[in-house]
Amino acid sequence: MSDDFLRARRRWLASVPALACATAWPSLGASASAARIERSIPSTGEKVPAIGLGTWITFDAGYAPGSRDPLLPVFRGFVEGGGTLVDSSPMYGSAEAVVGDLWSQLRRPPLFSATKIWTLGRGAGVAQVERSTKLWGVERLDLVQVHNLLDWRTHLATLDAMKREGRIRYVGVTTSHGSRHDELERIMRERRLDFVQFTYSIADRDAEARLLPLARDRGIAVIANRPFDGGALLSHLRGRPLPAFAQELDCASWAELALKFIISHPAVTCAIPATSQPAHLRENMRALAGPLPDADLRERIARTAGRGP
């Protein structure tokens, strides 16, 4: 997420009066758990909150003293807002180390650790999983995914073995490129996966045609990445008034409406917006509570946002 986009989003948020009363979230505990929207992982039935936290760019804070301090309120807000699933990757620079550090500072509240293999060859893949396990500070990772399908045959064999041995809990694959959907569809049909991750948003609905129905048929959990189209969606909507029906969904911003559009799809398990800004995090986590749109309202959201079929 670029600095230009972050500045633009801050200006846009400031122009929405309704957000003045939308800054509170439930505290961690029974109230947050009771209020939050959860989805079941099809392969086990385990439930996870439907809004997670992405870390690409935003959590690559480096290793200098104090460089991670501004992210602690973001991580704390995510946990207090009822979130658990955090998605990262060795590709994201220092992000895994930052997550592990911030999690320790908060005394390790419940967390669903989702990371990736992003390398070539079995030995390098094993080493990467071992390093990620140490950086997160866990005995075993909840989910390891093959990042952007890189050397996926090799790594899926490794991850399946690790899962059987109890070293990881779930296995998946990811892509953020529509050009890889054909290959991803073949993998989903041929292999038993717990999770798949791909792009899905109001701005990019390609997954609705094949991937989302297939995931539901095959019993595969779906993590939706790039929920704001890399920031382009909110830039497109900046200054546009919220539709009146947003009140029906307890939404005070386009970001909340966009996230509820995603997680209301019956095949989506979790959306993973990324941010380094506490105000944006609070806004995102508000989508974890309240009503969700039905099929007709989903289409109205898309049309109103100028991204309908």
Can you offer a commentary on this structure?
This protein is of the alpha/beta class. It has a single domain, classed as NADP-dependent oxidoreductase domain (TIM Barrel). Helices cover 38% and strands 14% of the residues. It contains twelve helices and ten strands. The strands form two sheets. The protein has an eight-stranded parallel beta sheet. Strands 1-2 form a two-stranded antiparallel sheet. A hairpin with a 6-residue loop joins strand 1 (38-40) and strand 2. Helix 3 (72-80) runs parallel beside helix 11 (278-285) and helix 7 runs parallel beside helix 8. The radius of gyration is 18 Å and the shape is globular. The two termini are 26 Å apart. The model is unreliable at 1-31 (pLDDT under 50).
Q: Can you lay out the helices and strands and say which pair or pack?
A:
Elements: H1 3-14, H2 30-35, E1 38-40, E2 47-49, E3 53-54, H3 72-80, E4 85-87, H4 95-105, E5 112-117, H5 122-136, E6 141-146, H6 152-164, E7 168-174, H7 181-190, E8 195-199, H8 211-218, E9 221-225, H9 232-237, H10 254-263, E10 270-271, H11 278-285, H12 295-304
Parallel strand pairs: 3-4, 4-5, 5-6, 6-7, 7-8, 8-9, 9-10
Antiparallel strand pairs: 1-2
Helix pairs in contact: 3-11, 7-8
